[in-house]
Design goal:
TIM Barrel; 37% helix; alpha/beta; three-stranded antiparallel β-sheet; eight-stranded parallel β-sheet; 16% strand
Length: 285
């Protein structure tokens, strides 16, 4: 991962990304590792509980080539139950503190749609905000991103994790997502957020068929000139289509990640870091 010092310099948004105080070259795509501190995430191997487990797991993720550790304390699987803001904070902040202390150079992303959680995460070592709601649930979160100069991952979703799979009626899937991104990018820029990453939201308010339609059109989102993130790892669009379990879906995940990379994706959000890193090494020119 090539990088250099950066302060307030602006740059080709699709070719570089500001992480902490470094300007990272995206000519080689990045790997974002999923670390769930939830009891009910859909893929059990991504969950971490004890302090020892977390540190050991993060060490393994970084050694395998993870560029970013994405920490989530609120399960976003379909029909997930709601938890309080306080419970989410209690889950993620001690973990962020612990990782920051043990791995001071690690880049940490906070997977939350709540501004209070994002603020505390920024204050304790996180440097990226990954918001599945596109600031629909808590609009104050974009002011947190601006205040802390944090890259903001703008994902497309309708509704909430509990309601999203009932909101899949689109007249034109690509056009509606593109319009969503266009409107929200303008709001983010006006708020002072300049480092924006686009996530089309595979598995969020989309049917299995719509997810594959989205994958087919993925390269078209490059028109915005912002890095694209793809979160395909072990999702139901894979295991339900193949009638297998999430635990059996790694080979198909690798195949879809290869397609995503061929369409210009700059960040892969994955459970399996070693395999994603090797895939990037094989395909990157």
């Amino acid at each position: 991962m090539q990088n250099s010092k950066v302060e307030d310099t602006y740059f080709d948004a699709n070719g570089s990304l500001r992480l902490k105080d470094k300007l990272v070259d995206l000519s080689t795509p990045l790997v974002m590792a999923i670390l769930n501190v939830t009891p009910d995430s859909f893929y059990s191997a991504s969950r971490a509980t004890s302090n020892t487990d977390i540190i050991t797991h993060v060490k393994d993720l970084l050694s395998a080539g993870a560029n970013i550790i994405d920490i989530g304390g609120y399960s976003t699987r379909p029909n997930a139950d709601d938890i309080s803001e306080e419970e989410e904070i209690d889950r993620v902040i001690p973990v962020i503190k612990q990782i920051s202390h043990s791995f001071p150079n690690a880049v940490i992303s906070i997977d939350t749609f709540r501004s209070a959680v994002a603020k505390q995460a920024m204050e304790n070592g996180a440097s990226i905000i990954n918001d599945i709601s596109g600031f629909e649930i808590d609009s104050e979160i974009i002011n947190v991103a601006a205040k802390y100069n944090a890259p903001y991952i703008l994902m497309h979703m309708r509704g909430t994790p509990k309601t999203m799979q009932s909101l899949t009626d689109y007249k034109n899937l690509f056009k509606e997502i593109a319009y969503y991104f266009s409107e929200k990018i303008s709001i983010l820029k006006e708020a002072g957020v300049h480092d924006i990453i686009l996530d089309p939201g595979f598995g969020f308010s989309k049917t299995i068929e719509q997810n594959y339609e989205l994958l087919d059109h993925l390269e078209s989102f490059q028109m915005f000139n912002y890095p694209i993130l793809a979160g395909l790892s072990r999702k139901s669009m894979i295991y339900k289509k193949l009638n297998i379990s999430p635990e059996e879906s790694l080979p198909a995940t690798i195949a879809l990640n290869a397609i995503a990379l061929s369409k210009g994706v700059k960040i892969l959000r994955v459970h399996d870091v070693k395999e994603a890193t090797e895939l990037i090494q094989l395909l990157n020119k």
